Amino acid sequence: MSLSSHAEAVKEQGWYHKLPAPSVLDARTRKLFEEYCHLESDDILPHLLTAVSDRRSNVSPGPRERAWAIFPWPYIGMFRFCQLSLSKHPSYPRVLAALKDSKQPSTLLDLGCCFGQDIRKLVYDGAPPEHLLACDLNGQFLDWGYDLFEDRESLKTRMIATDLFRDHGPLAEMEGRLDFVHASLFLHLFSWDRQVEACKRIIRLLKPRSGSTVIGRQTGNVAAHEGYMPTVGHVWRHSDQSFKAMWQEIGRATGTEWSVWTELDEGEGEHTEPGFRSLTFEVTRA
Length: 286
Description:
The structure is a single chain. A hairpin with a 6-residue loop joins β1 and β2. The protein is an alpha/beta fold.
């Protein structure tokens, strides 16, 4: 099946919404578009759906439509990127305060950042952009993020198109320099073994000291199991117990110790999988 055919097929699964739900385009997100992007309230929805070429003033598909054409995931089709998930994490106030500490500011990587929406929220909330870093495998997402937030010339955060699993890639220079890694809707794209490898690489990026933290949110289930996703292959769906067990395995393999907090909630959106949940986590080095 071609990518375009797959994109059309998964629309039938409820993965694609023509308009964002009110719970997605909520007051927090609207405020960001109004005050960070300087858009009028009535212009936000049209801005999400279309983009205007500066050269010819031709209306073209917006970042969501362009992203859906090459990466037809629920996160894109349901406008989940508008939810600003990092700012809804219970540890966000602590993370933001650490980043804003003028005497010893912390550093954060947004891993698998998509359009970089969480970076924009951090900057809007006062985090120094030069202490933030974002990366995504697909550089087009980063480029479209500038269109979405209209800050191509003003945003000073470094945005990198790279693969976490790439040896000697651009992230290598950040090894041992980060205080926080935000990894939402990222690990659940991989098998158990690949998640373990990803977390080992994340550990290498973090400062080797107590308090270094990985936070995020991803799909989960009350019963951990292996699943299959057509565009990526075999994936591991975690319960809270299996997520903690994975980090115990990672700790033994790396000679490190981690405190793991998880929370399963009912999740959001349309899901037919029995036991589906949303898994929020915080993993802190002891």
